[in-house]
Amino acid sequence: MKKNYFLIIMLLFAFLTNAQIKVQGVPRNDIKQKSTAQNQHKKSATTATTFNDIQYWVGTGSNQAAFVVQWNDGKNSDALIWGFRWDGTATGEDMLKAIAKADRRFFSLLYQGTQFGTAIGGLGFDLNGVNANGLYKDGNMTYPYYPVAGIINTTAYDFDNYTAIDVADHWQSAWYNGFWSYWVKDATDPDFGFSGLGATSRVLENGSWDVWNFQPSGSDFSIASTFIPVTPYVMPTDFTNGYFMVNEDWFGHTNGSVNFINNNGTINYRVYSATNDNHSFGATTPYGAIYGDKFYFISKQAADGGDTQYTPGGRLVVADAKTMKKIAQFDNIGGGDGRSFIGINETTGYIGASNGIYLFDIANMKVGSVVTGTGGGSLYAGQIGNMIRTSQYVFAVKQTKGILVIDPNTNTVINTITGAFHSVVQAKDGSVWGIQNQKIINIDATTFATTEYAIPTTKYLGSWGAWNAGSFTYSNQQNVLYWMNSVNSFVSGAQIVKFDVASKTFNENFVTIPGQAATYKQIPYGASLRIDPVSDHLIVNTTESGFGAHYQKNWIYTYDNTGNLINTNTLDDYYWFPAVAVFPDNTSPVVNATLPSQVSVTGPTVIDLKTVVSDTDNLSIAIVKTVKSNSNAGVASAVINTNDELVLTPQSLGSTTIVISFNSNGKVAEKSITVNATTTLATGDFKKLKLAIYPNPVSDILNIQTEDKVLNVTVYDISGKSINTRVNNNQINVSDFIKGMYIINVVTDKANYVQKFIKN
Question: What Gene3D superfamilies does the record point to (predicted)?
Fold first, then answer.
């Protein structure tokens, strides 16, 4: 009988020691003999951390639970804790997904839809703030995996095959060579217990605790005695101190996107998607433009059918330029594919498409009809390219046909500069320039007369076949133009060419982009070159030659305006295909004191408006001037001519108030002028009221403009002390002045003028 008892005891012991272990609901015979598995039946003492210690809470509701991840990888800080709030019913899976979506530092590898629910295969956290969240599978760096809403999905228990892109981050994933053990505790439980169930089956209670504790193969880690509270994740919301990079993105896989690069070098990826619940743009986004307080993103097609991660936004997406919040989206922009966008006035914009230019109602967010005369031609022989808005007209490049000149007041084509142009820009002095293969053409902004200048040795060969915005660009601070040279239609060059508009001279070796000694050279991509309007820095984006996986390598270089490299940003490895840099519009136009508030007219009087208004981050010469209102047109008429001059013509005795509107890239300033007509005659010689000091505020050179002969100039500081100044060609160098307000006294052969200016 004793033998039978002994046999029963031995059989029971054998059964218990070989009892099957469940990991996330899955029976695991392969780990039943391991000490790690046996320890899962043990209890773990309650941690010293409480709910009051949690700093980062996700969700809302009357119930709350704690979520802990313990990597056991030797990296600090480990055993991180978040809080989760909810109403109704929630599971451990709901909690994990909500936190992964809210905290973009935290990411997961999941196998969803199994018979046991969702398997948690890997968990990671961006420890160093590099934002390089992503995984390689089987060591394949050609096709990395990136999380969407904090999740990377797989369809098998192949968790052992994944490694983190950034090895400095927390990352643990395994199924056979280790596993994520799941420990739970509810409010009434004295301590933690191992859960054989998965997160899908775990029903949370108010006061629940979930701990994911990674167990490497051959090791056994207990739950930490103290958890480290995660600080709240703050989404970047300040899009003023840096610049945007609009990305075509990976055709066939991902819709278009936009990154934001802070001036401190921090790269914030997919800021539109992060702000708008993983929404994106259309397929292949080659262009973006800020006008007023809105950001317009143009894509070639409405959606990338291969993108299962992001919700497509269509050929046109409109967002708030300050917050990136979506305002509107459009699949159809007139029947063609998207190319470009430009604002015309406060209520209207132009959409450049593969089949013409279409009106866009900014006020009501509606796509309108085609601008007559801009359509026609096939996809690769009639598409619209770049467009610019001068103070009077719109200049738009149409493939093979030339540059169309459009009157924005009537939305009609009034002229065409024929030729095979690639792009068009306006220089600081107001001159308009088009570029062809080996020459640039100066176009008079009002008469449209042209003058050609041959590019000495290099070429500019744009890509109309797979259209991009091109590198032809301008400086807001200097009267110069820049572009990248080309080897041929398929090979980009490595040189930045600089053209001095005033002297008409070329520097074809202004800058050579880095990486030219490597086997796979760095090459420009997309527009590749734009100029920061405020700092005058050159922003250059490059990728790696060689096609295929080489295009995962992307750099952004910053040069000062003398050609010195001052910063290098390396993007996460990915097929971004950066399209164009776009700079925030932070300032509004400023009307200076040279524009009088009151004018007495005895005959037709002209006031030059070109120099009375400025804008720090836009071309001042391109500011649109309009007569917004005239309180009594019977006293005096007011019109603005094509030379940006206000013409006041008296009609009868009396006074009227004229309101002038100054629109600089969608931001508006106004100036009221009281006009006193002292004659009833509208005839006689024109009188010009013309004394201007500009720019105001000023950083370096203050210009004095007058039709009179300048005899003497004196500058006083705010205390009345005269400043030693030297006038050269009606210019004063104030770069050494202390910041503040100054008074300038200009004595001419006809009058004595006193004005104020600010040195910034």
Answer: YVTN repeat-like/Quinoprotein amine dehydrogenase
The number of CA neighbours under 13 Å toward the Cβ of 427 is 23
Q: What confidence tens digit (pLDDT) does each residue in 224-261 have?
A: 999 999 999 887 778 999 999 999 999 999 999 999 99
- Model-level pTM? 0.79
From 373, 425, 424, 382, select the one nearest 400 (Cα to Cα).
382
Domains, the chain, in order of start with CATH, read: 22-229 (no CATH), 237-319 (no CATH), 457-586 (no CATH), 588-689 (2.60.40.10), 691-760 (2.60.40.10)
Residue type, 374: T
Residue 647 phi/psi, 5-degree rounding, is: -110, 115
C-beta separation of 79 from 226 below 8 A: yes
Rounded Cα gap, residues 664 and 612, in angstroms:
13
CA distance 170 to 560: 38
- Asked if 595 and 607 touch (Cβ cutoff 8 Å), the reply is yes
List beta partners, residue 361. 348, 366
pLDDT digits (tens, 9 = 90+) for 18-27: 456 899 999 9
* Separation between Cα atoms, residue 629 and residue 625, nearest integer Å: 12
Q: Which two tokens stand for residue 529?
A: 């070159």
Alpha carbons 337 and 349: distance in angstroms, whole number: 17
| DSSP assignment of 417-450 | EES---EEEE-TTS-EEEE-SSEEEEE-TTT--E
The strand pair at 151-154 and 106-114 is best described as parallel
Mean pLDDT on 516-525: 94
CB 84 within 8 A of CB 96: no
Which has the higher per-residue pLDDT, 679 or 435? 435
Predicted confidence (pLDDT) per residue in 55-94, tens digit:
999 999 999 999 999 999 999 999 999 999 999 999 999 9
pLDDT digits (tens, 9 = 90+) for 583-602: 999 999 999 888 989 998 88
d(CA 92, CA 211): 10
